[in-house]
Inverse folding.
């Protein structure tokens, strides 16, 4: 009888151990577990002759993104920062292009002939302890060119979004000029991630004190925002 009891207890212990080993590990968001940072791709431009002279845009694989610019080159001065969620189309394309470029392992700067300086551009891929980067002034590589244009279009949207917000707060008569510029840039495909503009555009549309022409232009721009990308600006400072 004692031998039987020992056997039964041993079987129960084995069953419990097997059940525990089959239990999924704690989610990274649960207390007591370190948060894992998703893979990230960032683009930086450092160009003293431009406005702004320095900016960085970082996009994680889950869509979380952040824009930062400073009034001085080399990331100096009081920063302007915006957190937003990149659209699925943008983040998918960014990571696909990075994959095609072996995640920036290589030199893509064009050095065959002299090219006018347009700023030091740097692309970085980070994934846990893994990190690759490449810097260039101009590249003939089509994937590098597409990534550069995409990030520059996001920066253009950010820059005009800041102007629009400032005009709406302090100079409502100047709102119409920024809206017209935004419409021109959107028509020329020089903007990206238009959902960044949504909070201010919505306020303009709903503000009866604004001129009708401004409200209609704001409505036109809001209509350009894909529904899947709407309401994804997290905050700014």
């Amino acid at each position: 009888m004692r031998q039987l009891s020992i056997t039964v207890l041993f079987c129960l212990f084995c069953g419990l151990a097997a059940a525990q080993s089959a239990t999924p590990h704690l989610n990274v968001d649960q207390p007591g577990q370190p948060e894992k940072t998703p893979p990230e791709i960032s683009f930086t431009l450092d160009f003293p002759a431009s406005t702004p002279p320095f900016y960085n845009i970082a996009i994680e694989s889950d869509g979380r993104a952040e824009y930062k610019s400073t009034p001085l080159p080399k990331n100096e001065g009081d920063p302007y920062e915006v957190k937003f969620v990149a659209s699925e189309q943008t983040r998918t394309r960014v990571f696909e292009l990075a994959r095609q470029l072996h995640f920036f392992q290589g030199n893509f700067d064009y050095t065959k002939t002299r090219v006018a300086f347009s700023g030091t551009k740097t692309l970085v891929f980070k994934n846990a302890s893994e990190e690759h980067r490449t810097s260039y002034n101009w590249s003939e590589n089509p994937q590098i060119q597409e990534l550069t244009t995409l990030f520059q279009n996001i920066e253009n949207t950010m820059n005009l979004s800041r102007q629009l917000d400032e005009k709406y707060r302090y100079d409502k008569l100047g709102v119409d000029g920024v809206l017209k510029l935004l419409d021109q840039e959107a028509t020329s495909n020089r903007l990206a991630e238009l959902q960044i503009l949504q909070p201010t555009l919505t306020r303009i549309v709903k503000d009866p004190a604004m001129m009708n022409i401004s409200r209609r232009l704001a409505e036109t721009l809001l209509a350009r925002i894909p529904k899947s990308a709407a309401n994804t600006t997290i905050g700014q400072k």
Remarks:
- The mean pLDDT is 87.
